[in-house]
Amino acid sequence: MINQRGNAVWNGDIKGSGIITTQSGTVEAPYSTGSRFEGQKGTNPEELIGAAHAGCYTMFLTSVLTKAGYQIEQISTESKVTLDPSGEIPKVVKIHLTTQGKVSGISAEEFQKQAEFAKTHCPISSLLAAVPEMTLEAKLVG
């Protein structure tokens, strides 16, 4: 088993702020209600989930394509996490993955098939299965 940690420290009431850090020490970022709901400088949980999801998905898709014998030059992915703050309890209602791959010897149809497989099976996608809607736009380039 592999255990990884993320930590958060919050100071003050809901108008306060905090710091989110990772076990490796490579991430140390401020966050606040302003950065989460008002577009102010700093990070927020949804942005970090998007980054983690994009990283996991890209790594998983690369693994799937490598095992299938394809030569990958580059895979890039964005995970857009949509938070709906309109109700009494804010909820993540959608995640949209956009991925592009520069891969030799694969058809656009096969790339789409492998991209869909990765969307379903990457560990972070599996973790996020409770989100009501997860969509994918996959494009083979070059």
Pick out its properties:
single chain, 142 residues, alpha+beta, GMP Synthetase, Chain A, domain 3, 2 domains, three-stranded antiparallel β-sheet, 33% helix
Describe this structure in words.
With 142 residues, this protein is of the alpha+beta class. The chain folds into 2 domains: 6-37, no CATH class; 57-140, 2-Layer Sandwich (GMP Synthetase, Chain A, domain 3), CATH 3.30.300.20. It contains 4 helices and 6 strands, in the order βββααββααβ. The protein has a 3-stranded antiparallel beta sheet with strand order 1-2-3. The chain has a 3-stranded mixed beta sheet with strand order 4-5-6, with helices on one face. Helix 2 (45-67) packs across helix 3 (108-121). It is elongated and about 55 Å long. The model has no long low-confidence stretch (mean pLDDT 96).
**CATH H-level superfamily of the largest domain:** K homology (KH) domain
Strand order of the largest sheet: 1-2-3
Biggest sheet character: 3 strands, antiparallel
Given the structure, what is the number of helices? 4
N- to C-terminal distance:
38 Å
Q: In the CATH hierarchy, what is the class of the largest domain?
A: Alpha Beta
| Residue runs with pLDDT of under 50 for 5 or more positions | none
Estimated structural class: alpha+beta
